[in-house]
Amino acid sequence: MRHRILALGLVVFALAALASAGTMVSYPSGPETVSSYLAVPEGSGKKPALVVIHEWWGLNDWIKGKADAFAKEGYVALAVDLYRGKVATDPDTAHQLMRGVPDDRAVRDMKAAVAYLRSRPDVDASKMASIGWCWGGGMSLDLAVAEPTLAGAVIYYGHLMTDPQTIAALKVPLLGNFGADDQGIPPDTVREFEAAAKKAGRSVDFRIYPGAGHGFASGNNPKNPQAAMDADARTDAFLKKVLRGAA
Asked: Most buried among 4, 8, 197, 230, using CB within 10 Å?
């Protein structure tokens, strides 16, 4: 009897996990059709939405898990697939995939993701934001430039632009989390961007974590757990503020 109850419990747990998992959806991006991973929260009514942007590895299980986690927090989360179905497991392949994505196509695909979310009856089109890590962090900033009506954008150690006019024209509030030991995104460039944006009256909140390198908050086992925990807490508070109006 005990074994039967245990087996039943495992089945219920598996079904619950399956029910909470997202699904792949397709939508147009210019003349093409693209697919992304959609995670939807429980409950009825319109909800805030997030465009979730993957690292140079591609749309892997970790990014899908982030979308699932955001859905549990009440956000309709769409994890875009900018690699069109390809996923890397080693740095060389990841670099090739990243370099193989035309910038204009990436922006078009992300704008298509925004349009898809806006078309959904369960999304509040006035409460949408973007978030990305590594390469996806830079893409989150690029999307903020391309979609000035977004309520916010989160950048985890992503590339930053240097053109003063582009920075001054930013309208989307930004939150950024960076590492002081990041060789690819040097702290000086982070400070310069933040200073230029604030001088232009833009809403920018960047933090540089001492002892943290690139990708410090990525993966199931963060390289710098303390910095990752603080960065994620900042992100949570920022999203609640821009998407829910929390103080």
From this structure: 197
b/e for 66-92, b at 16 or more Cβ within 10 A? bbbebbeebbbbbbbbbbbebbbeeee
**Torsion over CA: 85, 32, 130, 72 (sign):** negative
Cβ count near 167 (within 10 Å): 22
Tokens for 234, please give them: 């900042």
Selection from 56, 243, 229, 48 nearest residue 137 by Cα? 56
Q: How confident is the model at residue 247 (pLDDT cuts 50, 70, 90)?
A: low
8-state DSSP, 52: E
Superfamily for domain range 23-244: Alpha/Beta hydrolase fold, catalytic domain (3.40.50.1820)
Residue 17, pLDDT > 50, answer no
- The pLDDT > 90 percentage for the chain reads 89
CB atoms closer than 10 angstroms to residue 108: 16
CA atoms within 13 A on the CB side of 137: 25
Task: Decide: 176 and 144 in contact? Cβ < 8 Å.
Answer: no
Question: With 0-12 CB in 10 A as exposed, 13-18 as middle and 19+ as buried, what is 186?
Answer: middle
Considering only 50-64, 105-119, 233-247, which range has the smallest mean pLDDT?
233-247
Nearest to 21 by CA among 69, 85, 53, 73: 69
Instruction: Domain ranges for the chain, please list them.
Output: 23-244
Give CA–CA dist 214/88, Å, rounded.
18
